[in-house]
Amino acid sequence: MSKTIQDGLWQEEFGKPLLIASQCLQCESKYFPERKICPKCYSDKLSTVLLASSGIVFSCTQVFVKSKLIPEQPYTVGYVLLADGITVPARLIGDKGKLEIGLPVSLAVGVTGKDSEGEEVIGYYFQPPNEVET
Ligand SMILES: [Zn+2]
Question: How far is the CA of 26 from the centre of ligand 1 (A)?
Answer without folding.
Answer: 5
